[in-house]
Design goal:
Helix content is 7%, strand content 57%. It contains 1 helix and 14 strands; from the N terminus they run αββββββββββββββ. It has one helix spanning 2-14, and strands spanning 33-43, 49-61, 66-77, 83-94, 99-110, 113-114, 120-122, 125-135, 140-143, 147-151, 154-158, 160-164, 169-173, 177-179. The strands form 2 sheets. Strands 1, 2, 3, 4, 5, 8, 9, 10, 11, 12, 13 and 14 form a 12-stranded antiparallel beta sheet that branches. A two-stranded antiparallel sheet has the order 6-7. A hairpin with a 2-residue loop joins β10 and β11. The relative contact order is 0.09.
């Protein structure tokens, strides 16, 4: 009995212990992928170009699920084929591309929409500012910094802005000035 007890004791002592599961190492705010001198294009079901994003360098951060892009350039066509372009020194987009933040000399331009053989139905619109935040699903553009809006020959400035393309409303706040 003593030999059996000593054998069992030796077997228990020599068996390796199971290590506790280690928590996954937190990486912090480090990119997990890069792209340099890139262009990403998306197409609709009929094969027409829907949007194109170009940049000097892009970095994806898994902790925030945002992609930062240097020297960003965007071309986008709506369902009616109207072209909207955007550019900035840097930009950010979330993984679903439902939000785009443009920072540093941000410019968004929607070209005039012309009716067949007539004057433009909607004039060219241009938004300028140091920061523009576009919500792509709802077609809303906001900024909490001073902005300038050029609509045809009209010019408006304000300390902040909210533009809703669906409702066709523009709200300028703060010190607002307009030239018609």
């Amino acid at each position: 009995m003593a030999i059996l007890a000593l054998g069992t004791y030796w077997l228990v002592r020599s068996t390796p212990t199971v290590e506790a599961a280690r928590p996954e190492r937190t990486r912090g705010h480090e990119p997990d992928s890069f792209m340099r001198q890139f262009s990403i294009k998306t197409y609709d079901a009929l094969g027409r170009l829907r949007s194109e994003v170009q940049g000097k360098e892009a970095r994806h951060y898994p902790d925030t699920t945002w992609t930062e892009i240097d020297d960003i350039r965007i071309r986008s066509f709506d369902t009616e084929g109207r072209l909207t372009t955007a550019s900035a020194r840097s930009g950010m987009t979330n993984d679903g591309a439902s939000e785009v933040k443009l920072m540093g000399n941000a410019v968004v331009v929607r070209e005039a929409q012309a009716l067949t053989g007539a004057a433009p139905a909607t004039p060219r619109m241009e938004y300028r500012g140091e920061f523009l935040h576009a919500y792509m699903d709802t077609e809303v553009v906001t900024s909490n910094l001073p902005v300038e809006l050029l609509r045809g020959k009209d010019r408006f400035t304000g300390n902040s802005m909210e533009f809703d393309n669906g409702e066709q409303t523009l709200q300028l706040r703060g010190r607002v000035r307009g030239t018609l």
